[in-house]
Amino acid sequence: MAERFEKQEKEKKISYFKERKSFFNGEGSNINSNNSNNEGKMIVVTPEQAALAKKVCFKCQGMGHIARDCGNKVTVSKKEHRMLLAYLDQEEKEKESTCLLNTEEEFDFEEFEGQEKITPEPEHHHIDHKLSSIFLVFATIFAMANAQGLKLDYYKTSCPEAEEIVERITKQYVSHVPNFAAGLIRMNFHDCAVRGCDASVLINPTSSNNKTEKTAIPNTTLRGFEIIDAIKSALEKKCPGVVSCADILALASRDAITTINGPWWEVPTGRRDGKVSLESEANALIPSPFSDVTTLKQNFAALGLSAKDLVVLSGAHTIGVGHCFIIRSRLYNFTGKGDTDPTLSPHYADWLKTRCLPIASDSTSFVFMDRITPKVFDEKYYTMVTQNRGLFVSDATLMTDQETKSYIETQVKTKGSTFADDFAVSMTKMINIGVLTGSQGEIRKTCGAVNQ
């Protein structure tokens, strides 16, 4: 039985690499691949067709048909092959973590034998506090900019299919790797926290500027850039020089969350792309996972966001992962004496140590931030926080402020009665921070580089 299962998994992995090229071209699997006129249009389907649309082909991993009806004979390039390998490996890691977390209730914490203690250097943002204060002043100015140039259906005439293309490609990626939803939301917030929502986080380092926001400490673990690039490529073919990368990021973040059955919110468009991207600003302005609640409230206030927005947007930690290197000092050397953060649940800390070993060179290991329902957008993150199982210091500290604590306890008590609506409201505020409109900025030809 084990050999047959291993053979099936191997065959599945090989067939996965035969995924249609259209996945990377923003077209996805098509029930009627011969009808090219259907692209981008709303199609009325029967209940039977709707049910079939949810089927996943074992042969090609496409949706909308089953293996015996699969006509996919398209090969992929070496680059696409490597991308598929990365997707599959990440998904396998996520499945492994899911299997492990399902055993939590059966884990005998009392029999756990402590890990060997070492004293690695604590991982913190080494930012000059005076410099940080100066940047916060500038951040406040950017946050005060209004969004009068934004409106719904901004591209209705100039690129009518723009939002449909963004939604379609986003869903293709997130359906394959659900954790992309967390990546895009985080990327969107990190972008808006620095110079406003201008897609400056997407700019790649160059010989003339080798330290962009992308290379900043908080952004080294961002993921989802390939989704934005794929969307931009498709839009440039359809409507060259029309849709901004800033709008793409704002729309894709929303569409990624709705793909995993999270809340929906309006995204007015008309943003333009920034031309400046500096590592130093990102290091200074993006809220740190090591910050206390007072600092976090100051960070959010500088962006025009309230304490409620802070605790609501922190709820996005209900999905996605946290990397072990960020919490290693909290587990093994919290005060520099080889100790564990005393505010962390001892049982949870013991479990984390089985996943996050005291290996300073390990920068890839991760754990889910919400171990209860890690791939469901719900209020269970708040349950984790009330149980002293918030992964980061910035999570745990929310219980030390009366306003944020009250919100958390209310969501736990009412099973998230208002969380989805609150999240939509806070996201609507966030995506309007310091936007560029009109003749400001530019419409980049590619999201990773300013126009020349």
TrEMBL record:
<feature type="binding site">
    <location>
        <position position="196"/>
    </location>
    <ligand>
        <name>Ca(2+) 1</name>
    </ligand>
</feature>
<dbReference type="GO" id="GO:0020037">
    <property type="term" value="F:heme binding"/>
</dbReference>
<dbReference type="GO" id="GO:0008270">
    <property type="term" value="F:zinc ion binding"/>
</dbReference>
<feature type="disulfide bond">
    <location>
        <begin position="245"/>
        <end position="447"/>
    </location>
</feature>
<keyword id="KW-0863">Zinc-finger</keyword>
<feature type="domain" description="CCHC-type">
    <location>
        <begin position="57"/>
        <end position="70"/>
    </location>
</feature>
<keyword id="KW-0479">Metal-binding</keyword>
<feature type="binding site">
    <location>
        <position position="200"/>
    </location>
    <ligand>
        <name>Ca(2+) 1</name>
    </ligand>
</feature>
<dbReference type="InterPro" id="IPR019793">
    <property type="entry name" value="Peroxidases_heam-ligand_BS"/>
</dbReference>
<dbReference type="GO" id="GO:0003676">
    <property type="term" value="F:nucleic acid binding"/>
</dbReference>
<dbReference type="InterPro" id="IPR001878">
    <property type="entry name" value="Znf_CCHC"/>
</dbReference>
<dbReference type="GO" id="GO:0042744">
    <property type="term" value="P:hydrogen peroxide catabolic process"/>
</dbReference>
<dbReference type="InterPro" id="IPR002016">
    <property type="entry name" value="Haem_peroxidase"/>
</dbReference>
<protein>
    <recommendedName>
        <fullName>peroxidase</fullName>
        <ecNumber>1.11.1.7</ecNumber>
    </recommendedName>
</protein>
<keyword id="KW-0560">Oxidoreductase</keyword>
<dbReference type="GO" id="GO:0006979">
    <property type="term" value="P:response to oxidative stress"/>
</dbReference>
<feature type="binding site">
    <location>
        <position position="287"/>
    </location>
    <ligand>
        <name>substrate</name>
    </ligand>
</feature>
<feature type="binding site">
    <location>
        <position position="198"/>
    </location>
    <ligand>
        <name>Ca(2+) 1</name>
    </ligand>
</feature>
<feature type="site" description="Transition state stabilizer">
    <location>
        <position position="186"/>
    </location>
</feature>
<feature type="binding site">
    <location>
        <position position="191"/>
    </location>
    <ligand>
        <name>Ca(2+) 1</name>
    </ligand>
</feature>
<feature type="binding site">
    <location>
        <position position="318"/>
    </location>
    <ligand>
        <name>Ca(2+) 2</name>
    </ligand>
</feature>
<keyword id="KW-1015">Disulfide bond</keyword>
<comment type="similarity">
    <text>Belongs to the peroxidase family. Ascorbate peroxidase subfamily.</text>
</comment>
<feature type="disulfide bond">
    <location>
        <begin position="324"/>
        <end position="356"/>
    </location>
</feature>
<dbReference type="GO" id="GO:0140825">
    <property type="term" value="F:lactoperoxidase activity"/>
</dbReference>
<feature type="binding site">
    <location>
        <position position="213"/>
    </location>
    <ligand>
        <name>Ca(2+) 1</name>
    </ligand>
</feature>
<dbReference type="InterPro" id="IPR019794">
    <property type="entry name" value="Peroxidases_AS"/>
</dbReference>
<feature type="binding site" description="axial binding residue">
    <location>
        <position position="317"/>
    </location>
    <ligand>
        <name>heme b</name>
    </ligand>
</feature>
<keyword id="KW-0408">Iron</keyword>
<keyword id="KW-0106">Calcium</keyword>
<feature type="binding site">
    <location>
        <position position="378"/>
    </location>
    <ligand>
        <name>Ca(2+) 2</name>
    </ligand>
</feature>
<feature type="disulfide bond">
    <location>
        <begin position="159"/>
        <end position="239"/>
    </location>
</feature>
<dbReference type="InterPro" id="IPR033905">
    <property type="entry name" value="Secretory_peroxidase"/>
</dbReference>
<feature type="disulfide bond">
    <location>
        <begin position="192"/>
        <end position="197"/>
    </location>
</feature>
<feature type="binding site">
    <location>
        <position position="194"/>
    </location>
    <ligand>
        <name>Ca(2+) 1</name>
    </ligand>
</feature>
<dbReference type="InterPro" id="IPR010255">
    <property type="entry name" value="Haem_peroxidase_sf"/>
</dbReference>
<dbReference type="InterPro" id="IPR000823">
    <property type="entry name" value="Peroxidase_pln"/>
</dbReference>
<feature type="binding site">
    <location>
        <position position="370"/>
    </location>
    <ligand>
        <name>Ca(2+) 2</name>
    </ligand>
</feature>
<dbReference type="Pfam" id="PF00098">
    <property type="entry name" value="zf-CCHC"/>
</dbReference>
<feature type="active site" description="Proton acceptor">
    <location>
        <position position="190"/>
    </location>
</feature>
<keyword id="KW-0575">Peroxidase</keyword>
<feature type="binding site">
    <location>
        <position position="373"/>
    </location>
    <ligand>
        <name>Ca(2+) 2</name>
    </ligand>
</feature>
